[in-house]
Design a protein that fits this description.
The complex is a heterotrimer of chains A (383), B (485) and C (98).
Chain A: E1 2-3, E2 6-9, H1 13-24, E3 30-32, H2 41-44, E4 48-49, H3 59-70, H4 72-76, H5 78-83, E5 92-96, H6 99-114, E6 120-124, H7 125-131, E7 141-145, E8 149-150, H8 153-166, E9 170-172, E10 177-183, E11 186-191, E12 194-198, E13 200-203, H9 209-214, E14 224-232, E15 242-245, E16 251-254, E17 260-267, E18 269-271, E19 276-278, H10 281-294, E20 302-312, E21 320-323, E22 330-334, H11 344-357
Parallel strand pairs in A: 1-12, 2-3, 2-13, 3-9, 5-15, 13-22
Antiparallel strand pairs in A: 4-8, 5-7, 6-7, 10-11, 11-12, 14-17, 14-20, 15-16, 16-17, 18-19, 21-22
Helix pairs in contact in A: 1-8, 1-11, 3-11
Chain B: E1 8-14, H1 18-29, E2 34-37, H2 51-56, H3 59-65, H4 67-70, H5 72-80, E3 85-87, E4 90-95, E5 100-105, E6 108-119, E7 123-125, E8 138-140, H6 141-151, E9 153-155, E10 159-164, H7 166-177, E11 182-187, H8 208-223, E12 228-230, E13 232-237, E14 244-249, E15 252-257, E16 260-265, E17 267-269, H9 272-276, E18 281-284, E19 289-292, E20 305-307, H10 317-334, H11 340-367, H12 372-375, E21 382-384, E22 389-390, H13 391-399, H14 405-412, H15 425-435, H16 440-443, E23 455-456, H17 457-461
Parallel strand pairs in B: 1-2, 1-6, 2-3, 6-20, 8-16, 10-11, 10-16, 11-12
Antiparallel strand pairs in B: 4-5, 5-6, 7-17, 13-14, 14-15, 18-19, 21-22
Helix pairs in contact in B: 1-5, 1-10, 6-7, 7-8, 10-11, 13-15
Chain C: E1 2-4, E2 12-16, E3 19-23, H1 29-35, E4 42-43, E5 50-51, E6 64-67, E7 70-74, E8 85-87, E9 89-90
Parallel strand pairs in C: 2-8, 4-9
Antiparallel strand pairs in C: 2-3, 4-5, 6-7, 6-8
Classes of the chains: A alpha/beta (383), B alpha/beta (485), C mainly beta (98).
C-alpha cells in the first residue's frame, strides 16, 4: 500500500494540471492513469484555445485560463512551454454565411457586452477577408475573439505531465482504478497495479469519470461521445486564425506542421469498453462540403488520417467542477463536453484552491455536482 | 467495370493477386455476386503483375521472368471468365466492421456495403531502414521487379542488390538476364542456405525443385562473375542520390559504387486495412511480422471480414490460391450458397495442397531472418520516411518515458505522413519493444482509422451512397451555437 | 538510370514539368518518368530532400506528384493518359493547384 496525501485519477490535462497545482502547494500527489497520459480527449482534441462563443457560465474560467496560456512559461518553464506549440493572438472566428447568422453574432456580442465581456466582436466581410484571405465569397463576416489561438494538444498534455514530474509528482500509467473506499484514515484507492491511500482524491476521469464516482455511490450522467477530426497532408501556410462554423459543422485550423485539422463535432462511434472510437465516413461528408464551400482552395487537399477522441458529455454541455455530494475530500473535474482543452491550465488551479482553502476566486457555482439529482439526472430547468 | 457506384454488393474482394483472383473465381462460380476491387489496372497482383499483356506479347520479358510467372495467366483467365465483376484502379480507403467499403475510382469516391469481405491485400517488402535509404536510387528489389513486369523498365547503371530472401536473388538473376550491370550482391542473411538451413532439409522432400531453382540463380550469378558478399551494417552513401553502398564484411568496412541500390529483406503482410478494422493481430515470431488472427478459413476476429493469401501471413503465391479458395468456400457457405458439408468437402484438396506447401515456408522463414538493421536500425537512420524521424530520436523519446507506440507517433509525428505508417510501423514497434525489453505484442501497432489511402477533400465532399440519415454532428442545444461541444 | 527493354512503340505523350515524356499505354506515371530519367518526383516537406519511388506498389508514397491539378497522387498507381500534365511536388506543395 502506497500512502500519500492526494491521488488524482486520470492523466489528462486536467489531472496533470491538478497534480502540478497540488504539488505547488506542498502536497505529494500521485496521478493514476489507466492508459497513458493524454491518451483520450486531452491528447487527441483539435487543440483549439478558444474563448469565443463559450457558454456564459464558462467565461470567467476561460478568461483566467487564457491568462495562463499567455504565461505558460511561468507555469511550465520555457522549454516545456515551447513544446506546447501554443500560438495565441491569432484569433478564433465564427464564420457567418447568412444574415441570420450575422444577426446571431450581433445579438451574442450585445449579450456579452451586457455581462461586461468585451473580447468578442462582430466583424464584417472586409475584416474577415483581411484576416482570412482564403475565405470564400459566401462568408459574410462573423464573430471573433482576437486573443484566441491553438496549441498541440498531445504535446501540451505531455508538458503538463513533465512539469508535474519535475515537481515530484508520480505519474503512474497503465494503472487502472478498480475501487474507491473511504475509511477512517482517508481514501483507499484500489488499482490493478497496487493499492494507494490518500487524504484527498480528485476525479479527472474524463469519459470514465462517472464510473469512478459510481464507486462511492455518486451518480452522474453516463453520456459520452467521440468527436471526429480529420487532417490533411502538410500544406503551405495559408491561415492563422482558427475558424469555426456558427450553424454549420466546422472547426478548422492549420497546425505548426502545416496540416489542416478539420472537425467541429462530427460524431464518431465510441467504444467505451474497448476505450477507443471509430470514425464514420458518412458523417464526415458534411464537414468536407463545408470546408469545400468556405475554403475552395482546399478542394484538392488530401485527407490522410482521421480519428475520434472519447470525452464525457454533460446534458447542459458544461463541466462538473466541485466537491462530491456524498463524501468529503473527493473532488470532481470532468464532463468538459468537448471543449475542455482551453480550460486545461486553470481547472487544476481551481481544484487546488478548493482542496486547500475550500474556496476559489473564480465563480464555479454553475459547475456544481449538486445540479444533478442523486441518481445522476439533470432536472429540466423551471419555466 | 459496370455500375461504378453500386450501393451494395454481396461479396467484396480487395486485391487482385492470386488469392483475390482465386477467391473471386470460385465464389462467382458458386453463385455469389462477387466484386473484386483492385488498385492495379489489370489482374495479377504483384507476383503476376501485367500477366495478361506480357503473355500476349513480349516473349523476351517472359523469358526473363520465367515459368513461375507464366503460370499466373491461367489464374487470370479463370478469374476473367468466372463472372466475378472486376473493378480496376480502385483504391479501397476504408472497410468498416459492418462491411462498408470506401472506394475511389476514376476521380470519384463512393461507399458500397458488402455482406462479406475478403481482403486479399497481399504482401509488401519489409521496410529495411539503413542510413541513406531515402536517397533517390535506393528502392526495393520488388520495386525493380514491378518496373520490369509492368513496363519492361530496368536499371541500366551499376546496380547492387542487398538483403536476404529468395526474391533478392531472383530479382538479381532476372536483372542480369535483362542486361542490368550488377556490381554485386550483398547478402545480409545471418544464416547460410548451406549451413543452419540444412537442419530443415528433412522437411523439404518434394521441394527439391524450389531449392534447386534458388541455387541455380546463385550459380548463374556467380558464373557471370557477379560478386556475392556477406555484409552487415549497410549504408547508402551519396549527396543528392545514391553513389555507393558501404557495409561491413569480413571484419572491415567496404564500399562498392552503385547508381541503383535494391534492398530486400523479405515480405510482410500488408495489414493496413485489418489494423484499421481493429481486427485481432498476432506477432508472428517466425516471420517477424504482424498478421491478423485468422481461423482455418481465413476469417478474422470480425464477423464479416476474412483475409486470404499473404495478407494473413506470408505463405507465397501458390499457397495464396488455396487460401483464396478456402475463404471463398466459407463465404459461399455463410451466404447460403453451399452447405457446411459441401464447403468442408470442397476444402479438402485445398488443405492437402496447403499442407504440402508448409514445410518449404518453414525452411524459408528459418534461413531468411531479417537483417539486424531491420530490428535495430542505426541511430541516424531515418525510420519514418515521410516525417523524417530517426531511430535515435525515437530511442531518446523512449528514454524520456514514452512507453506506447501511439505516444511516439503523436509526439514525433512518425507514422503521421502520407504513407500512414506503412513504411515505419513495424520498425518503430521494434525499436520500442527493444528499448523497453518487452515483446511486440505488448507494444502493439499504430491506431489506424479511415482513410487507409489518402482521400481528396473534394471526393469526400461528393461521396456517393453516403447515409444522409446518419446524424452528422452533435447539436446539444438546438439553435444556440454557444451551447456547443 | 533506367532504360526500357523495348523502345519500339511509345505512342503516348505526357508532360512532366512541361517536358514531353514518351511512354506506352499501361505504363504507370512512375514507370514513364523513371524510364525518362526523372530523378526527382518530389521534395519532402520536412527537409526538402528529393525523392523518387521506393516501392512501386502504393505503399511508400515517395512517388507523389501532381497530376492534372490534383496534388498528392501516387505516380506508381496512376496509368498514363495522352496529354496528362504531371508536375513535381516541392515540400508542402503550392497553392495555385491545391
Amino acid at each position: 500500500m502506497t500512502a500519500t496525501d492526494a491521488i488524482v485519477i486520470g492523466g489528462g490535462i486536467h489531472g496533470c494540471c491538478t497534480a502540478i497545482n497540488l504539488a505547488l502547494r506542498g502536497m505529494r500527489p500521485i496521478v493514476l492513469e489507466k492508459n497513458t497520459v493524454g491518451r483520450h480527449a486531452s491528447g487527441v482534441n483539435a487543440g483549439g484555445v478558444r474563448q469565443l462563443m463559450r457558454h456564459t457560465a464558462e467565461v470567467p474560467l476561460s478568461i483566467a485560463a487564457m491568462d495562463k496560456w499567455e504565461r505558460l512559461d511561468d507555469l511550465l518553464g520555457p522549454e516545456l512551454a515551447k513544446n506546447c506549440e501554443f500560438i495565441g493572438g491569432v484569433g478564433q472566428i465564427g464564420i457567418a454565411e447568412s444574415e441570420a447568422e450575422m444577426e446571431w453574432c450581433r445579438a451574442r456580442v450585445a449579450e456579452m457586452r451586457s455581462l461586461g465581456y468585451e473580447f468578442e466582436e462582430v466583424i464584417d466581410a472586409a475584416e474577415l477577408r483581411r484576416l482570412v484571405p482564403a475565405a470564400a465569397d459566401i462568408c459574410r463576416g462573423g464573430i471573433i475573439s482576437r486573443r484566441d489561438g491553438h496549441a498541440n494538444p498531445f504535446r501540451t498534455t505531455q508538458s503538463f505531465r513533465s512539469r508535474a514530474e519535475q515537481l515530484g509528482v508520480r505519474v503512474m500509467e497503465r494503472t487502472r482504478v478498480t475501487g474507491l473506499e473511504k475509511g477512517d484514515g482517508g481514501w483507499t484507492v484500489a488499482t490493478d497495479n497496487g493499492a494507494f491511500k490518500a487524504d484527498v482524491v480528485v476525479n479527472c476521469g474524463g469519459a470514465w469519470a462517472w464510473q469512478v464516482a459510481a464507486m462511492v455511490g455518486e451518480h452522474f450522467p453516463k453520456t459520452h461521445f467521440a468527436s471526429t477530426l480529420m487532417v490533411t497532408s502538410r500544406m503551405p501556410h495559408f491561415i492563422d486564425p482558427v475558424v469555426i462554423g456558427i450553424d454549420r459543422v466546422l472547426s478548422f485550423k492549420q497546425t505548426e506542421a502545416g496540416t489542416v485539422v478539420i472537425g467541429g463535432g462530427i460524431l464518431g462511434d465510441p467504444d467505451l469498453d474497448a476505450e477507443t472510437a471509430d470514425t464514420v465516413a458518412d458523417r464526415m461528408v458534411v464537414s468536407a462540403q463545408t470546408v469545400y464551400e468556405f475554403f475552395p482552395i482546399l478542394r484538392r487537399a488530401t485527407i490522410v488520417r482521421s480519428w475520434a477522441g472519447l470525452e464525457a458529455l454533460m446534458p447542459d454541455v458544461i463541466p462538473v467542477i466541485g466537491p462530491s455530494r456524498v463524501a468529503p475530500n473527493l473532488w470532481h473535474a470532468f464532463g468538459f463536453s468537448g471543449h475542455g482543452f482551453q480550460l486545461g491550465p486553470i481547472v487544476g488551479s481551481v481544484i487546488a484552491d478548493l482542496v486547500a482553502d475550500g474556496k476559489c476566486a473564480i465563480p464555479i457555482a454553475a459547475f456544481s455536482p449538486t445540479r444533478f439529482t442523486l441518481d445522476g439526472k439533470l432536472p429540466s430547468p423551471a419555466h | 467495370m459496370t455500375d461504378a457506384t453500386r450501393p451494395n454488393c454481396e461479396l467484396a474482394i480487395v486485391g487482385g493477386g492470386p488469392a483475390g483472383m482465386a477467391a473471386a473465381a470460385l465464389a462467382a462460380e458458386l453463385g455469389v455476386e462477387t466484386v473484386l476491387f483492385d488498385e492495379q489496372p489489370t489482374p495479377g497482383g504483384q507476383v503476376y503483375r501485367n500477366i495478361e499483356a506480357n503473355s500476349r506479347t513480349r516473349d523476351a520479358l517472359r523469358d526473363i521472368l520465367g515459368a513461375d510467372y507464366a503460370k499466373g495467366l491461367a489464374l487470370a483467365e479463370h478469374f476473367r471468365s468466372s463472372g466475378a465483376v472486376y473493378e480496376p484502379l480502385s483504391a479501397v480507403w476504408q472497410v468498416s466492421a459492418g462491411g462498408k467499403l470506401g472506394v475511389s475510382q476514376n476521380g470519384k469516391a463512393y461507399l458500397t456495403k458488402a455482406r462479406r469481405v475478403i481482403l486479399a491485400t497481399g504482401a509488401m517488402e519489409r521496410p529495411f531502414p539503413i542510413p541513406g535509404w531515402t536517397l533517390p536510387g535506393v528502392m526495393g528489389a520488388g520495386a525493380a521487379q514491378t518496373l520490369m513486369k509492368a513496363s519492361g523498365v530496368v536499371p541500366d547503371r551499376p546496380t547492387i542488390v542487398a538483403g536476404s530472401g529468395p526474391l533478392a536473388y531472383l530479382v538479381a538473376f532476372q536483372l542480369m538476364k535483362a542486361g542490368t550491370p550488377l556490381n554485386g550482391i550483398i547478402d545480409t542473411s545471418e544464416k547460410s542456405v548451406f549451413g543452419a538451413g540444412l537442419a530443415a532439409i528433412p522437411l523439404l522432400s518434394g521441394f527439391a525443385g524450389d531449392l534447386f531453382k534458388g541455387l541455380s540463380w546463385i550459380a548463374a550469378l556467380r558464373k557471370m562473375r557477379v560478386p556475392i558478399l556477406k555484409g552487415r551494417k549497410l549504408a547508402a552513401e551519396g549527396v543528392s542520390r545514391v553513389e555507393a553502398v558501404s557495409f561491413e564484411s569480413g571484419g572491415r568496412r567496404q564500399r562498392l559504387p552503385a547508381s541503383i541500390l535494391l534492398l530486400h529483406e523479405g515480405v510482410i503482410p500488408n495489414n493496413q486495412i485489418t489494423a484499421s478494422l481493429r481486427c485481432k493481430h498476432v506477432w508472428d515470431m517466425a516471420q517477424m511480422a504482424w498478421r491478423p488472427h485468422t481461423d482455418e478459413w481465413g476469417a478474422t476476429s470480425l464477423d464479416l471480414v476474412a483475409v486470404a493469401g499473404d495478407g494473413a501471413g506470408i505463405g507465397g503465391s501458390r499457397a495464396a490460391v488455396h487460401r483464396g479458395r478456402l475463404a471463398a468456400l466459407d463465404a459461399a457457405c455463410r451466404l447460403g450458397r453451399i452447405s457446411r458439408g459441401e464447403r468442408d468437402e470442397r476444402a479438402r484438396p485445398e488443405r492437402r495442397a496447403l499442407q504440402r506447401e508448409a514445410p518449404f515456408r518453414t525452411f524459408l522463414d528459418r534461413i531468411y531472418r531479417p537483417a539486424e538493421a531491420v530490428r535495430r536500425p542505426l541511430e541516424d537512420t531515418v525510420v519514418c520516411r515521410c516525417e523524417e524521424v530517426t531511430a535515435g530520436e525515437l530511442r531518446a523519446l523512449v528514454g524520456e518515458g514514452f512507453t506506447d507506440i501511439n505516444q511516439l507517433k503523436s509526439f514525433s509525428r512518425c507514422g503521421m505522413g502520407q504513407c500512414q505508417g506503412r513504411m515505419c510501423g513495424s520498425t518503430v514497434a521494434g525499436i520500442l519493444a527493444e528499448s523497453l525489453a518487452t515483446d511486440m505484442e505488448s507494444v502493439g501497432y499504430y491506431r489506424l482509422r479511415l482513410p487507409v489511402k489518402p482521400l481528396p477533400v473534394a471526393l469526400l465532399a461528393e461521396l456517393g451512397n453516403a447515409d444522409s440519415g446518419s446524424r452528422p454532428s452533435l447539436q446539444v442545444v438546438e439553435g444556440d451555437p454557444s451551447q456547443r461541444i | 538510370m533506367f532504360r526500357r527493354l523495348w523502345t519500339d512503340d511509345l505512342p503516348t505523350t505526357i508532360f512532366f514539368d512541361g517536358r514531353a515524356v514518351r511512354c506506352r499505354p499501361g505504363d504507370s506515371v512512375a514507370a514513364a518518368l523513371l524510364a525518362a530519367g526523372v530523378e526527382r518526383f518530389r521534395t519532402t516537406p520536412v527537409s526538402g530532400a528529393a525523392r523518387i519511388p521506393y516501392c512501386m506498389i502504393g505503399n511508400c508514397f515517395d512517388c507523389l506528384v501532381e497530376i492534372d491539378g490534383q496534388a498528392d497522387r501516387q505516380a506508381c498507381l496512376v496509368p498514363v493518359a495522352e496529354g496528362m500534365q504531371v508536375r513535381s511536388q516541392s515540400g508542402t506543395g503550392r497553392f495555385d493547384t491545391i
